[in-house]
Every structure is written in structure tokens, then in C-alpha cells.
Amino acid sequence: MSQTSSQADGAPSEVVTLKRQLAVLEPQNAELRKQPAEEKSECLCLEGQVIHRLVCLTDHVKDHIAEFDRRVMLGIDLDDDTSLNDPEDNRKYRSYKKLVTWCPSICCGFNNDATGWLICPVDYDWNDPVVQQGIRDYHPDYHVTAHSWPAFLYQDEKYDPLKPVDGLFKGKLLLKTFKYTFTSPTSAEMDNQEQLDPEMLSWQGCPKQ
């Protein structure tokens, strides 16, 4: 009987303690609501952490792309990521779908024949299948570094190792980009592109802010 009465006496004190804690937390909660939303850079940092945890670091991105291509060839429903009996293949395909969501340009770069031809270093011949595969496989004989000059910088994507300056910074896409930025979008769409030289780049200066 005495134990029951002591429990009844303790209940009101617990309620009072909880109310006191709520009274302390409510102002703090109100202050947190007034704070501005996180900046986009912080959100991108979180997205990077998600991608880091999403894909096994021992897998190449090309393996996920190959799994997608295989399902397309087999006519498998692309909305179903559990249709195969092999859980490893299902995991690769789920990783591919997530990567496409977070990184829409996953099928560009050297994984795409058109963009690979443009950014291929002038030291290599992108038309050679061995070169393509070597670059995509990170082969030590086909290094691509920050010191590599991509083909799109040169006029008609042609590079002369004996005259490395000839045609440099006169690529068609590069000139279009220059005109679009410093003159007008209309001039960038003109077929007869002017041959701009470094002197023009120097006196044009920076675009107005």
C-alpha cells in the first residue's frame, strides 16, 4: 500500500520535470526555425557523401553502364531493379540508376564516343579502338592529365607535333563559345566563323558584369 502511494506521489513530480524541459526547449526550437536555410554548397557536400556511400569504390562506373546496356539488349523492364536472380547485377543496376539521378553527365566524357573524340589528348588517336579502351581503362600507357591538350582546342582537331602552336585555340567549338560570350549568341550561330587569334583575345578583355 505504501509502495502504491509513493508511485502516485512521484508521478506529478515527473510531469513537472517534463514540462520544465519543454519550456526550455521551446525557445531553442523557435530560434532554430528563424535561422536561414543551408546554402547550396552545403547541400552539394551532402550529395557527394550520398554518392560516396552509394557505389562500391572497387567498381568502375563503366561496369554500371555495361549492366544498363545489357538489360536494354535483353529487353528487361528498366523500371524493375530486382528482376534478375543475381543480386550483384541488381546492385549494379540500382547504382547506375542512382548515379544517373545525381550525375546526369555520367554517359559523357570518355564514355561517349563524340565527347571522347573532342577531349582526347592530341598525343593519341581517338579513332584507334586500342587507344579508346586504354584511356577508359586508365592504362598507364594512355595517361590523361591536366597537362594534356584536348583535340577540340585545335583547328579541325588537327595537331602537328612539329608545330604544336599551329591551329591552337582555333577549334570550331572554342570559337563559337568565344563569340557567344564576348559578342552575341547570333554571331556564334554563323557558319563562316572568323579565325580569332590571341591578339583579339587580349584586346577584347573580360565581359562586362
Strands, helices and their partners?
Layout: H1 2-34, H2 40-54, H3 61-74, H4 87-102, H5 113-119, H6 129-136, H7 172-182, H8 185-188, H9 198-204
Helix pairs in contact: 3-4
What does this entry look like structurally?
By secondary structure, the protein is mainly α. The chain folds into 3 domains: 48-107, no CATH class; 109-155, no CATH class; 169-209, no CATH class. It contains 9 helices and no strands. The protein has helices at 2-34, 40-54, 61-74, 87-102, 113-119, 129-136, 172-182, 185-188, 198-204. Helix 3 (61-74) crosses helix 4. The longest helix is centred in the first third of the chain and has 33 residues, at 2-34. The radius of gyration is 30 Å and the shape is extended. It starts with a helix and ends in a 5-residue tail after the last helix. The relative contact order is 0.05.
What Rg, in angstroms, do the CA atoms define? 30 Å
State the shape: extended
Q: Find the structural class using helix and strand composition.
A: mainly alpha
Task: Please provide the count of β strands.
Answer: 0
The ordered string of helix (H) and strand (E) elements is HHHHHHHHH
Uncertain spans, ≥5 residues at pLDDT below 50?
A: 193-198, 200-209
Report the β-strand fraction as a percent range: under 5%
Residues in helices, as a percent range: 55-70%
Number of helical segments with 4 or more residues: 9
From the N-terminal CA to the C-terminal CA, the straight-line distance is 83 Å
Biggest β-sheet, characterized? none
The overall number of domains is 3
Mean pLDDT: 74
